[in-house]
Amino acid sequence: MTELLSRIFIKNRDRVQDPRVRSAYGTLVSITGIVLNLILFVAKFLVGTLFGSVSITADAVNNLSDAGSQIVSLISFRIAAKPADREHPFGHARIEYVSSMIVSFLILLIGVELLRESVTKIFSPQLPERSWVAVAVLGGSILVKLWLGLFNLRIGKRIDSSVMRATAADSLSDVVSTSAVLICTLILLLFPESNLNLDAYVGVGVAILILVAGVKILLETKNSILGEAPSDEIVKQITALVESTPGALGIHDLTVHNYGPGHVIAALHVEVDGKVNVFESHDMIDNIERTLRREYGIEATIHMDPIVTNDALLNALRPQVEAAVRSIDDRLRIHDFRFVSGSTHSNLIFDVAVPFEVALSDDEINRAIADKISRLDPSYFTVVTVDRE
């Protein structure tokens, strides 16, 4: 069904990096979700009201909040498709992250209200009427929400949409909560002599599931808004391209900024042989930038680092310095290594890449390196720049 709808409604459906194609996918999924959730809301609300079931009514209100979330998603995709302008030079794609956070707040609000109502019903019990109509409506709702969740999940992965993944998680959690309501309704039907107030307790369970889903979406979206480390896939793609390019001798200081799906900006340093013609090296750097833009949709700015490759003293000294630095912590790596000889002392100038997991402070690392290098030769002084990564 997903492929069929995509073929019918999405022009150039495979060009998922195109903002217009992403907007078309967002419109298709959002309108589908709005229509289906409104239908489920009306059906469940009528059944819950007619038969006095707080759990079914709670499930109905949850569907109404899902329809509202899809409206937020629809608006966000329209805004995200807008081109960059003077006020937003990196485009508007991050609006999806804001929308995901709004969706999470709506889910949390609904969850709190449903929890309050269900707890009230526990202390003021009102047993619902028993009806097979409710079973039919709930069963149909489970099938619809299951399909809707998988629909959002597949399209969300295809176009890398956080708001769709959030909606998919919400829909699949609805499957669990509605299943609980269905089981409660079946128990009341199959055991008519039972006076257990299951309805209110299941309402509490549904509310808790809704709250958990809301918190999960909120935490995931928070990382995207604050900025997070690039995915291993992006790092591997960039590193593999640089390492496979003739003339590129190394890569370091890689920074990746995510301005929303399809809007990735990277900065990195590429080492080149200092004796090679600067125009040749610059042309090689340009080719890497064009390839990243064309094949991966990454706008990259590359700093060219010329290094000495055929100096005997430097080639012999660097492995010793690397070993000394790794003896402090095996996760430390050096780059931009230079050696400036003097009459009274010599300077070893380099950067050291330090993972955030290393507990030592920058000053402690500098002191430890200076101590290790002085043991190699007391005339060696270190000028070290610590790069946290």
Description:
It is a single chain. This protein is of the alpha/beta class and 389 residues long. It has three domains: 2-226, Cation efflux protein transmembrane domain (Alpha-lytic protease prodomain-like, Up-down Bundle), CATH 1.20.1510; 232-307, 2-Layer Sandwich (Alpha-Beta Plaits), CATH 3.30.70; 312-388, 2-Layer Sandwich (Alpha-Beta Plaits). 63% of the residues lie in helices and 14% in strands. The chain contains eleven helices and six strands. It has helices at 2-9, 19-51, 54-80, 95-123, 132-159, 162-190, 198-226, 232-243, 278-296, 312-328, 362-376; strands at 250-258, 264-273, 298-307, 333-340, 346-354, 380-388. The protein has a three-stranded mixed β-sheet with strand order 1-2-3, covered by helices on one side. The chain has a three-stranded mixed β-sheet with strand order 4-5-6, covered by helices on one side. Strand 2 (264-273), helix 9 and strand 3 (298-307) form a beta-alpha-beta unit. Helix 4 (95-123) packs parallel to helix 6, helix 6 runs antiparallel to helix 7 and helix 8 runs antiparallel to helix 9 (278-296). The longest helix is centred in the first third of the chain and has 33 residues, at 19-51. The chain is elongated and about 100 Å long. The mean pLDDT is 83.
Keywords:
alpha/beta; Alpha-lytic protease prodomain-like; Alpha-Beta Plaits; 3 domains; 3-stranded mixed beta sheet; 11 helices; elongated
Could you give the topology of this structure?
Layout: H1 2-9, H2 19-51, H3 54-80, H4 95-123, H5 132-159, H6 162-190, H7 198-226, H8 232-243, E1 250-258, E2 264-273, H9 278-296, E3 298-307, H10 312-328, E4 333-340, E5 346-354, H11 362-376, E6 380-388
Parallel strand pairs: 2-3, 5-6
Antiparallel strand pairs: 1-2, 4-5
Helix pairs in contact: 2-3, 2-5, 3-4, 3-6, 3-7, 4-6, 4-7, 5-6, 6-7, 8-9, 10-11
